[in-house]
Amino acid sequence: MNDFSQLRSEIDRGIREGEHFGAQISLSVKGEVLLDEARGFNAPFQPLQQEMLMLWLSACKPVTAVACGILMDRGDLDLDLPVAEWIPDFGSKKKGKITPRHLLTHTAGIRGATLGWTPKPCDEIIGMICYSKPEPHWEPGEQAGYHVDSAWYMLGALIREIDGRPFDQFVRDEVFLPLEMPSCYVGLEDEVYDELEDRIALVYDTSAGVPEELEVLNRKESVTSCRPGGNGRGPAREFLKFYQAMHRMVKGEDGILTSKTARDLTALHRVGMMDKTFRKTIDWGLGFMRQSDHYAPGETPYQFGSYASRDAFGHCGNQSTAAFCDPAHDLCVALLFNGLPGEEVHQARMRAALDALYGDLNFLPH
Length: 366
Hints:
Layout: H1 5-16, E1 22-29, E2 32-43, E3 46-47, E4 54-57, H2 61-73, H3 100-104, H4 122-130, H5 150-163, H6 167-176, E5 185-186, H7 190-196, E6 204-205, E7 212-213, H8 215-218, H9 220-223, E8 232-234, H10 236-251, H11 259-266, E9 274-275, E10 280-281, E11 289-290, E12 313-317, E13 321-326, E14 331-337, E15 339-340, H12 343-360
Parallel strand pairs: 6-15
Antiparallel strand pairs: 1-2, 1-14, 2-3, 4-8, 5-8, 6-7, 9-10, 11-12, 12-13, 13-14
């Protein structure tokens, strides 16, 4: 039986060197969970537990994509109609051509409406985005640049407009609970926060080598904020179920999505385009990152390691997380760190950890 010694050694190295306090890791091969554990600490003298709710940051973006897919399957969402068809205010300031497809592929040209981690009322945020200007000389769909949060707030607002339920309730009802992910949320309700407070994992800034609590992400106001592009929380063992379900659906089994829609979301929709945010060429599905390391091996950020197949799809979170499926190996992974050590250190840390994982599984090229 595999002891995952290389992966565990790499996680523990990061703990010793102050890159993170701890990590949760869950993975499966051919549907069988081979590793599910927490290592290190949540706080001094408090071990990180498998049941704790870790922050996913941008790794939660595919959840929003799947929520859109559910509405597509119901015939309620056409990705190629302007967003302004549902939310007329969004069409102001020359944004009338932007469609949900542009939002999902990071080609909308509204990166400038980035709002940061400080919580604000959702309606205020949507108003700010609706009345913001697009980037100059940006034709939607013709240029690419990662949208940290603006596009995802608009997708959340679109889902609310179409379905009637708030986004956080929609994903609980239609994604998390059907997939047996009861401890997963995109913004906890106040009463749920009060009930689960002891299980909410902390996040640390470790860029100076000494972990410091990131209060802007740890305080109740932030944990209960609904940010469709960055505030997913839950244990790695439950997040893994999301990608196991996606893998089954992509292979042909209908689930919360039809197999056709699951394949469409994870297929290549943006190919060979330079990403103006990351300054590297990165391919995308609809809300899902596609493995793009072949464009600049070892240099492309937020990949699924050096050895993931070109078919791998998923998403990573800022300096902290990676969750993905690699269909070529029937592999699903959720790896969540609780320390943000700076971009350069994180890219090296995550690549080393995922390369170790592939080595432990003997999935390296021969």
